[in-house]
Amino acid sequence: MKKSFASDNNAGIHPLIMDAIIKANEDDYISYGDDFYTQEAEGLFKKVFGSDIDVFFVLNGTGANATALKAMLHSFEAIVCPETAHIAVDECGAVENLTGAKLLTVPTQQGKITVEQVNSFMHFTGDQHHSQPRVISISQSTEMGTLYTQAEIKELADFAHQHGMYLHMDGARIANACAAMGIGFKEMSKDLGVDVLSFGSTKNGMGFGEAVVFFNKSLAKYFPFIRKQSMQLLSKLRYITCQYKPYFQDDLWLKNAMNANRLANLLYEKLSDIPKLKITRKSEVNAVFCLLPKDKIEHLQSKRFFYTWDDASGEVRFMTSFNMCENDILDFVSFLKEELT
Fold this sequence. Notes:
Blueprint: H1 15-24, H2 36-49, E1 54-58, H3 61-70, E2 77-82, H4 86-89, H5 94-99, E3 102-106, H6 115-119, E4 132-139, H7 150-162, E5 166-171, H8 174-181, H9 185-188, E6 196-199, E7 210-214, H10 223-229, H11 238-241, H12 244-248, H13 252-271, E8 278-279, E9 287-291, H14 294-303, E10 307-310, E11 315-319, H15 326-340
Parallel strand pairs: 2-3, 2-4, 4-5, 5-6
Antiparallel strand pairs: 1-7, 6-7, 8-9, 9-11, 10-11
Helix pairs in contact: 8-13, 13-15
């Protein structure tokens, strides 16, 4: 079967992780997280990030973002984020619905927010007529396939803390970001001043489930109740948490992410040879954006589905996944060349 370039969500589960799920199914365990696998997973996260954290496991990425942000602010406060942020575009208003808070979005060409843009909302502070800025939310990597530098993240964190705010990181593709920048999870988040991390892994070889990691432990006080009330507490939690041992073991997460990134770079290079296709953005992780003839997009999607990013311009997005190989890239490029000539 041909590989899908629509999303890394379309990829299956890594065999080592599937084996762990099967093993966790062999016996009965206490439910709701009072089991060996969940305790082991908590220990693994503390090994990665340090012992002074709290970590909780939820069902999905939207749940991770929404519950994390719920723990960080009141309904009369606001979250500042890029207009392209997943929480603003692709989560069906889940964050607003759960938190009651307002999203203050800013325009961006590269998916990244700056201190100057956040500062433009600070005159709202103390004015009862305005939602109060409380959280800056960034995605690493961004929805545009770009990366914040470590300096940029620290600058945002420092600004937030100087103004009584918090920094949240949507790490749906944090593994790809770490692989691209050659640093670890801790160096990408906790060490830079991030307060709460939505730690994603289903795009990188896991089957389901995500984690919410609190570096500012004071924000975690009511999270167990938020998670339960938000219907994000799985009774058989071991089926989520058992996946983290193989995910972290022998740097499987890194090998998966490096492969996806490497193949995106290969795809980027090969697509440059197709005259009727124009690359629009630098490929920093496992996403490639390009312009296609608008009259060809629907036909191409009917044969090899992918997502349109901008209907007006004809910009589309191709995603590579951990379980692809070079032949998958070459096959897809050959298909595009044949259809576009």
